[in-house]
Design brief:
single chain, 835 residues, alpha/beta, seven-stranded mixed sheet, binds ligand MGD, binds iron/sulfur cluster, binds molybdenum atom, Prok_molybdopt-oxidoreductase, iron
Length: 835
Amino acid sequence: MEDSETGWIKTTCAYCGVGCGVEARPLSSGKLDIRGDKSHPANYGKLCTKGIALGETVVTEGRLLSPTLRSGSSEEEVDWKTATDLVAKKFSGTIEQFGPESVAFYVSGQLLTEDYYVANKLMKGFIGASNIDSNSRLCMASAVAGHKRAFGADIVPVCYEDIECSDMVVIVGSNLAWCHPVLFQRLRAAKQSNPKLKVVVVDPRKTDTNEIADTHLTINSGSDVVLFNGLFCYLFDSKVINSEFVDNHTQGLEEALLAARQDVQLSTITGLQSQEIQSFFYDFAQTEKVVTIYSQGVNQSIQGTDKVNSIINCHLATGKIGKEGCGPFSVTGQPNAMGGREVGALANMLTAHMEFDNEQHKKVVSEYWDTDNLSNGPGLKAVDMFQAINDGKIKAIWIMATNPAVSLPSNDMVIEALKKCPFVVVSDCIKQTDTTQLADVLLPAQGWSEKSGTVTNSERRMSRQRRLLPSPGMAKPDWWIVSKVAQKMGFLDAFDYLHEGEIFQEYVGLTTIDQDQSPRAFNLSGLVSMDEVQYAKMTPQQWPVAKYQFEATQNRFFADNQFFTPTKKAQFVAVRHCKQIVETNTDFPLELNTGRARDQWHTMTRTGLSASLAGHTPEPFVLVHPSTAKHNNLTSNSLAEVSSCRGSIIARVTLTNTISKNQVFMPIHWSDTNTNAGKPCELIDSNIDPISGQPEFKSTPVTIKAKDYNTIAIVVCRNKLVGLQASYWCLQKVKSGYLYRIASNQTSERLVAQLTLLVERTTNSRMRSFEKQKRNECVRINVLDRRCDSLITVKQETTHFAQAEIDSIVELCERQTAFEQEGELFSYLEPQIEV
Ligand SMILES: Nc1nc2c(c(=O)[nH]1)N[C@H]1C(S)=C(S)[C@@H](COP(=O)(O)OP(=O)(O)OC[C@H]3O[C@@H](n4cnc5c(=O)[nH]c(N)nc54)[C@H](O)[C@@H]3O)O[C@H]1N2
Ligand SMILES: Nc1nc2c(c(=O)[nH]1)N[C@H]1C(S)=C(S)[C@@H](COP(=O)(O)OP(=O)(O)OC[C@H]3O[C@@H](n4cnc5c(=O)[nH]c(N)nc54)[C@H](O)[C@@H]3O)O[C@H]1N2
Ligand code: SF4
Ligand SMILES: [Mo]
């Protein structure tokens, strides 16, 4: 929707599941002006750092511009016809020879609903298998499974507004301040205006989310079920159960209580003092309006689903659900994790909240899609899917909008599997990622600002992402690419879409079929009569949509006490705490916790392009408690090797009291594309929750030791260095190009020579001869138009560069003013060099 006078176009942020409304205005430079959309009910005009920087990341640098066939080190750019012919032929051929289970799609919450819908329809409806799974398996699967067990459907009952109306917000395993910043801002504002509002954070480490916390329960990793089972028993014993609600609208209380009672030794297992536990229990019991927000500290666990239900049990017991200011609230990670769940693009779902174990559902979907080849049951979930590729059972895979070579556990196996797999197709916007390296066919997809479609946020609100800029090269929308291949596989009529709006219309229709016979929560009947123009102008709609919502609604589920189980009652689930599959031991005495940094998004393919975002955490780091550091001879800012039984990676040590002595924390963002050994998933085994299939990412036994080098270097260059080899390197985007931090065991002379050669090759110019030797330091500058074009500083030292030194190097390379004499360039660096 564009305001034709001012040029502002309404769209939705590319990143997290808060789903903020954005207004964007294309500039003549090709960049975008960005501001928050004041009318969007998710954010009312607010944006976080990542949202504000969206305009900086719409660059063409590094984009995948044309379909590309790869074989060994050779690459051939081809047209769309050749590429889609080939993909269709290979998939059809594989299916013919080995059956429909021999192919798979691995898709993503980064896709739009329309893309997601088409991919799911092709696999389940026409290929006739269910080997389609999404990176949401790594993200939301436990929440989905927990919702289904308790409510009979995958429903997030609350609205964002409930956070603001509540008197107590419990934040479990969520770094809301960094990962859902605008929601965090809303909570902070609510707390300021309602001093009664109590915030409790349940997290083994202290994060920025603690800024607004009244209480921090530094729970032992993996012990949330014990805490919430304890609360459940307390609620019962202190007679604050809502009997009217429990008796009439729930079932399974006794069994759940019996199980909860067996989880004893609360303090020992959670590591919390009984006094803090009791006061948390008391507050939860005595506060009428409680919202419990939970995220990956809950979901990404071998008992993620049980953690979810242990939380929901407490809300059901007290009837703190379906009312203003109340409810369990699973915040979604990705921009469209929720959309993927709606279309059913996870291996164990059919589509549109319909299920494989329901014959009527299968019948209506077959009829609606006009297919006689609908898949009959669930397929392989992400971790099993990659195992099946490794075992040779899956022989062709199509990866769309996700980077499994970085983000899946047992990373070495995943990479090996993709190397072995006879046919690997990757659709991405970016040319160089760890996963695109492993593709036989690369397909260029339109990215945020070019593509057009719908995403659903954490409060079930569907918003439009709109096209703002032309797409570079031959990039196409994901739905178009999938449809073309589907047509060429012989399914012409079912995939002859001309426009994403047609797909959306078909999808809306699907959500309404058979609702009379078996009512489903997910219903968009209010959008059935929408035409293309209305779709183009669609304002945010929160499902269920019975009537087009001209005004933003605040639809809360379960206000009518009706659930989606066969009895229409909510289900208590009996859950018990279980230990980690692999516990810390003498070889691996520490627990590795992994998660996110404030200003980076996942594998950095987009946020990594922004110099301003890179400044917050420029390098892969490991958070270590000072006493753990002392015990392991680690000093602040030194490099350390973190090892598990699977392998070793390297990161910069950050000393902090925010983490416990038995844990270390690493961010997930670095990959082989921007550092040489910084991917935590190399250390993490594929231990999954048996119900949801979601991997444990928060607890891996590791050990840590200092990693010393003889020589360290900083290189700034306008282009990326090709063929850099060093014991440690890491790359950071800066305004003038790229900054490399390097550590090596070579002598400084050799390292200088090697780096000089690389920079000269990369920039196609010569480093000037005015090399300046200091006591233990060598600086070389490449001068262009009397400006510093690139710069190498090497030190014969084992420690790190001080941030001030790095800042002055970066500043020198960014300077637009020419230096009168080249010597001035050096004197500019002098104060820092003279340490
Ligand atoms: N900046 C930024 N924001 C993002 C993303 C990003 O990449 N960058 N990604 C988005 C996505 S897809 C997702 S899924 C979300 C994730 O959002 P979050 O879940 O908030 O983020 P994480 O950092 O993965 O983990 C959250 C917290 O769980 C804690 N934790 C670990 N183990 C346990 C445990 O056993 N119990 C409890 N109670 N807590 C534990 C960790 O210490 C950590 O602070 O963020 C979204 N937002
Ligand atoms: N150790 C550890 N591992 C984790 C986690 C953790 O906490 N700890 N968290 C897990 C979670 S919750 C998540 S969500 C995953 C995220 O992990 P990934 O999904 O692997 O990470 P992304 O970087 O988001 O990958 C998205 C890819 O899609 C591309 N892309 C972006 N937009 C489009 C588009 O429109 N079309 C196409 N075709 N491509 C596009 C991007 O360039 C990028 O290469 O990581 C998981 N892995
Ligand atoms: S909170 Fe999430 S959706 Fe909102 S601007 Fe930030 S990253 Fe984008
Ligand atoms: Mo996620």
